[in-house]
Amino acid sequence: MKKLINAVEDVVTEQLEGMALAHPDILKVHFEPKYVYRADAPVAGKVAIVSGGGSGHEPMHGGFVGMGMLDGACPGEVFTSPTPDQMYECAKAVDSGEGVLFIVKNYTGDVLNFEMAAEMAYADGIKVQSILIDDDAAVKDSLYTAGRRGVGTTVLAEKIVGGAAEDGYSLDQCADLCRKVNQYGRSMGMALTSCIVPAAGKPTFDLGDDEMEIGIGIHGEPGRERFKMKTADEITEMMAIAIIEDEAYTRTVREWNNEDGEWFDLELTDDPFQSGDQVIAFVNSMGGTPVSELYAVYRKLAGICAAKGLTIVRNFIGPYITSLEMQGFSLTLLKADDEILKYWDAPVNTPGLR
Amino acid sequence: MKKLINAVEDVVTEQLEGMALAHPDILKVHFEPKYVYRADAPVAGKVAIVSGGGSGHEPMHGGFVGMGMLDGACPGEVFTSPTPDQMYECAKAVDSGEGVLFIVKNYTGDVLNFEMAAEMAYADGIKVQSILIDDDAAVKDSLYTAGRRGVGTTVLAEKIVGGAAEDGYSLDQCADLCRKVNQYGRSMGMALTSCIVPAAGKPTFDLGDDEMEIGIGIHGEPGRERFKMKTADEITEMMAIAIIEDEAYTRTVREWNNEDGEWFDLELTDDPFQSGDQVIAFVNSMGGTPVSELYAVYRKLAGICAAKGLTIVRNFIGPYITSLEMQGFSLTLLKADDEILKYWDAPVNTPGLR
Predict the structure, then answer these.
(1) Minimum-distance CB partner of B4 among A63, A297, A322
(2) Residues forming CATH 3.40.50.10440 domain(s) in chain B
(3) Chain B residues touching residue A351 (CB < 8 angstroms)
(4) Which residues of chain B lie closer than 8 angstroms to A295, CB-CB?
């Protein structure tokens, strides 16, 4: 294993130390338990947005802490959920009294731990809302997930809901917007190579020298199918068509009710994309794929969207939700209405997005 | 070879097509010959800044075209110099009458071709200045270079001189500032893995599973020494100390005289860093190394600079001058005076840096 690390057990701690040294004007890092939070937190009168998850999906989430995006982020070990005490302590540190919105990617560990943290925060008098992101159209149920996985739409939700919170949205308004963004977004990923988790020291999965896998998750969870290598155009078409033609998707999510302090079930259905929709197109590198190759993908994607009657009104191209050094990419299309565009375009100042 | 490409011969063209589709508000692409230029070029009353070089070092240079940075960029094939006609046509497209500054990385092909382009532009009545970047402290003379190679300081020069041009600097003032930035900057790179150039289809060099190379160039040119893998702290220390303790460096550069239309030789000496200096610290990914590992490097670098009496007044951390998907990183330290800081902090709007 060749990585720029010292001891395996110190990887996340030392990376956070570097981040704190590099960006003292934007964020601070608390170490026991670990969380990253805005240097000016809590921001008076503002709902706080908090996310978190396993490390290794940089710059998400810690790199998205700052004005216009997250108030706090809880990093787990690499590809491992953070713990409820991280989330709870982070919520306490950033709550201004207006409440805290948790943005939770749909992985079983993350979901359970954020649920526990929500209950702990509520017991402490902090209003919480917890919104699930489950936008990965590749597979239903996966290695670490019941239902669809949470992937690229998470980044877009953090930006859009972060902008709305900055603009004075209430906790319930932030939750409604975040739920809408999740319902409007669909993603799919693919891998050319595996990454190596430091604690494992070997590739997460094996993929032949002439093979690729479509529909893979951000931890290397199995996808839809392996193929012999195809061209960028062929790969982009397979993935874009699968997203655009994805059928209505219905699932039951659990959300928190601050009135009675109880979880309740909510059935949500995502409608398919329709000709005439405006979309934000997000072409993401899994880490090891250069941005130049993402532009080749975007070239084909733009043609497919046009042919399907979708108008790309914004694009977002780069490594924003990665799997360490994995080569590959993911596509996310987000149906964009005026509210979503307004906050997508709002000012932001984080290490990972400015 | 697993890459997101179609036909090998179309790689750069299709990537540029994607870039043009993605950023029509910022830039345009001309295809025969190939150059990327500001959507609003020529900008009246402003000196135009033009750079270029082989493709594969993204987002440099095309991704740095836009307000506050480059007016034009000439992409060669992957790791191959662009041609004089690209540079000449680009200069004509972006010149407002105030002249064009070429920022040239020190690789023999780039240098020769930019010299020819300067002569062609001058013959056409365009004032030109051509400033060499040769900041790589790793080796003197290399595979494609007489003298030191041009690496990370190029990105800093494009930002700083681009900001000054936006602020009304004359062509000669831009040239003076660019020359100073080059003299104030020193860099060194290292590789954990090779990249694969599409047209070659196989790794540029072989490096054992437990080996790394210190001092490598951005095309995989040989460095100072190969070692068995070391820790991030050990690697960072080797490179940072080599940069900080690098002795006075003297070379003769060729510059262009617009008065008589002749090249002249100029002897330049870069002074070593001194305790008390303020610096901009640039930790760059070679492409495949995740930003999280760069933060581990920055953590150590900050300590070394402090111990050596250097104050890091700005930092810049991410993949900005890459070698396709190569894993590894480079360090650049740039002595920063008030003029340099003013334009480092100036507004910028490019695909690669905002």
Answers:
(1) A297
(2) 8-186+247-272
(3) 317
(4) 14-19, 22
Pairing of strands B278-285, B311-318: parallel
Among the partner residues B291, B298, B315, nearest to A58 by beta-carbon distance: B291
**Superfamily for the A187-244+274-338 domain:** Dihydroxyacetone kinase; domain 2 (3.30.1180.20)
Structure tokens at A200: 């494992």
Task: Provide the shortest C-alpha distance from residue A51 to chain B (in Å).
Answer: 18
Give the rounded distance of the alpha carbon of A248 from its chain centre: 21
For residue range B89-116, list pLDDT tens digits in order: 999 999 999 999 999 999 999 999 999 9
pLDDT in tens, B209-227: 999 999 999 999 989 999 9
Nearest CA in chain A to B19: A295
Question: Is residue A140's pLDDT more than 90?
Answer: no
Of B11, B14, B298, nearest to A21 by CB-CB distance is B298
Distance of residue A66 Cα from the nearest chain B Cα, in angstroms? 16
Report the candidate in A143, A309, A112, A317 with the shortest Cα–Cα distance to residue A215.
A143
CB B140 within 8 A of CB B225: no
Is residue A352 within 8 A of residue A63, CB to CB? The reply is yes
Axis-axis angle for helices B108-123, B84-94 (nearest 10): 50
**Whether the Cβ atoms of residue A220 and residue A242 lie closer than 8 Å to each other:** no
Nearest CA among B254, B244, B248 for reference residue B276:
B244
Distance of CA B165 to CAs A148, B69, B98, B118, B168, Å? 50, 8, 10, 19, 5
**What is the ipTM for the molecules in this complex?**
0.97
**Tokens read off for B222:** 């040989």
Indicate the pTM of the whole model.
0.98
The mean pLDDT value for B222-251 works out to 96
Domain with CATH 3.30.1180.20 in chain B: 187-244+274-338
- Phi and psi at B136, nearest 5°, equal -80, 105
**Helix locations, chain A, DSSP H:** 11-22, 84-94, 108-123, 153-166, 171-184, 232-244, 291-307, 338-344
Phi-psi sector, A171: left (phi>0), alpha (psi -120 to 50), beta: alpha
Are the Cβ atoms of A4 and B294 closer than 8 angstroms? yes
Looking at the domain that runs over B8-186+247-272, which CATH code has it been given? 3.40.50.10440
Asked if B178 and B161 count as a contact pair (C-beta separation under 8 A), the reply is yes
pLDDT at position B140? 87
Number of Cβ atoms within 10 Å of the Cβ of A32: 8
Structure tokens at A317: 């191209």
